[in-house]
C-alpha cells in the first residue's frame, strides 16, 4: 500500500475518538496519520524490516490504549493512536504485494518482516501493489472521516488524497523512467546506487 493510504487509515482510526472523546480528536487524528507513516521511514534502508514491527507495535499499543482509556489526555491518546496506527500499517503490508521493483508481476514472497518469529510474511496481494487502483480506492475510503471533520487537518487529508491520486497515475511508468535513468548512468555510479 501507498504510504499515504497508511496515513489516511491512521487518521481514520484517530477519527474514532470523535465518538468517545471528541476533545482529543485533533491529536488522535494527527497521531494516527504520523503513526501510519512512521514505519515507511525505513524506505531508505531495509524496507518493511527496519521499522515494521507487526507484533511488537501491537503489543505496545494494547497497554497504551488501556492507559488512554483510564487516563485520557492529549499525550496518552496520541501515543495510543500512534502505536495502533503503526501496528496496523506493519500488519497490513502483508495484505499487499511484495518488495520487488515491479510488484504487479508478483515475483516476491516477502511482504513484511516478522521480528517475533524471525521470518518474512508472504504477500497476500489483496491490494496488488502500492499505487494500484484498489489502493487508491482504499485511500479514498479512509479519507472520508478526515474530509468530513471540519478542522485544519481536513486540508492535510485532501493533500494526501491528491498525492495518492498522482502517484497511482504514474506508478507503473515511474519504474520504467527510473530504469531508463539508471541505464544512462556511468556503470560505476549505477552499481553503487543499486547496491545501496
Summarize the structure in words.
The chain crosses the membrane at residues 54-83. This is Metal-dependent hydrolase. GO terms for molecular function: hydrolase activity. Keywords: Hydrolase, Membrane, Transmembrane, Transmembrane helix. The protein has eight helices and two strands. With 196 residues, it is mainly α. The protein has one domain (3-195). A two-stranded antiparallel ribbon has the order 1-2. 42% of the residues are buried.
State the main characteristics.
single chain, 196 residues, mainly alpha, two-stranded antiparallel ribbon, 3% strand, membrane, transmembrane, Metal-dependent hydrolase, transmembrane helix, hydrolase
What best-fitting shape do the alpha-carbon axes yield? globular
Please mark out the parts with pLDDT under 50 across 5 or more consecutive residues, or reply none: none
Domain tally: 1
Helix content bin: 55-70%
Give, in order, the helices and strands. HHHHHEEHHH
How large is the radius of gyration? 18 Å
Main sheet, how many strands, which sense, barrel?
2 strands, antiparallel
DSSP strand tally: 2
Order of strands in the sheet with most strands: 1-2
User: How many separate helices?
Assistant: 8
Oligomer: single chain
Mean pLDDT: 92
Strand content: under 5%
Structural class: mainly alpha
Distance between the termini: 23 Å
Amino acid at each position: 500500500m501507498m504510504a499515504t493510504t497508511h496515513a489516511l487509515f491512521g487518521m481514520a482510526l484517530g477519527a474514532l475518538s470523535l465518538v468517545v472523546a471528541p476533545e482529543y480528536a485533533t491529536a488522535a487524528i494527527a497521531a494516527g496519520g504520523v503513526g501510519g507513516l512512521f514505519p515507511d521511514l525505513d524506505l531508505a534502508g531495509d524496507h518493511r524490516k527496519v521499522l515494521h514491527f507487526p507484533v511488537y507495535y501491537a503489543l505496545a499499543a494494547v497497554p497504551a490504549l488501556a492507559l488512554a482509556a483510564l487516563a485520557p489526555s492529549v499525550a496518552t491518546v496520541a501515543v495510543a493512536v500512534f502505536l495502533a496506527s503503526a501496528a496496523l500499517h506493519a500488519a497490513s503490508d502483508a495484505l499487499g504485494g511484495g518488495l520487488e521493483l515491479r510488484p504487479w508481476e508478483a515475483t516476491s514472497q516477502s511482504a513484511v518482516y516478522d521480528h517475533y518469529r524471525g521470518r518474512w510474511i508472504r504477500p497476500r496481494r489483496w491490494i496488488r501493489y502500492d499505487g494500484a487502483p484498489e489502493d487508491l480506492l482504499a485511500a479514498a475510503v479512509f479519507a472520508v472521516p478526515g474530509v468530513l471533520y471540519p478542522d485544519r487537518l481536513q486540508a492535510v487529508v485532501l493533500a494526501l488524497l491528491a498525492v495518492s491520486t498522482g502517484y497511482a497515475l504514474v506508478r507503473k511508468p515511474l519504474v520504467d523512467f527510473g530504469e531508463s535513468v539508471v541505464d544512462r548512468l556511468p556503470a560505476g555510479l549505477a552499481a553503487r546506487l543499486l547496491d545501496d
